[in-house]
Amino acid sequence: MNDFIPLSRAVEATAIPSGHNTTLPEGTVVSITQSLGGTFTVHASIGGLYRIAAQDADALGLEVAPQTHVIAEGAFSEALVWDALRGVYDPEIPVNIVDLGLVYSLQAEPTEAKPDTYKVVVQMTLTAPGCGMGPSLAADARQRISTLPGVAEADVQLVWDPPWGPERISEEGKAKLGIG
Asked: What pTM value is reported for the model?
């Protein structure tokens, strides 16, 4: 995956680890470091890592893959939120944040402003307090939750208590990481 690819057009990207949105100009040379959860993590010639959405795969010279996780139209459910969170990956770890045990809680509260809409509050942590990926992962989670039917607001909070430990990793996550 370390081929050098000049972007065929400008693309919106998320800077890693800050989580800030930026535009990578046409012609920027990138190399793909990871492709999980429907996004591409790239190292750019202008410096730094960036996350590019699947719908911009054409700018990388790739086919835009059909959406692997299609959110159904209709009513809100917490199950949809959990599914959306399973699409969030740390750019350096091939396991989603749910299976890594980073999501501590998920609460959905009905809003008063609009019937059948919800404020979703997620508390999550990182594998280490010094990990710089927090803003980027929280931004990705917030964006994915915000697109779900019936979500009026998404609030993703980073918390440090209790501290994360490897015992929180699901059996599926352990299998992907090759640990028993």
From this structure: 0.76
Instruction: Tell me the CATH number of domain 78-177, given options 2.60.40.10, 3.90.190.10, 2.30.30.40, 3.30.300.130.
Output: 3.30.300.130
* 53: helix, strand or coil: strand
Q: What are the pLDDT digits (tens) for 22-59?
A: 999 999 999 998 888 778 989 999 999 998 988 899 99
**Is the peptide bond prior to 129 cis by the omega test (within 30 degrees of 0)?**
no
DSSP states of 139-172: HHHHHHHHTSTTEEEEEEEE--SSPP-GGGS-HH
Cα distance between residue 180 and residue 178, in whole Å: 7
The CATH fold assigned to 5-60 is SH3 type barrels. (2.30.30)
All structural domains of the chain with their residue ranges? 5-60, 78-177
Cα 62 to the center of its chain, rounded Å: 20
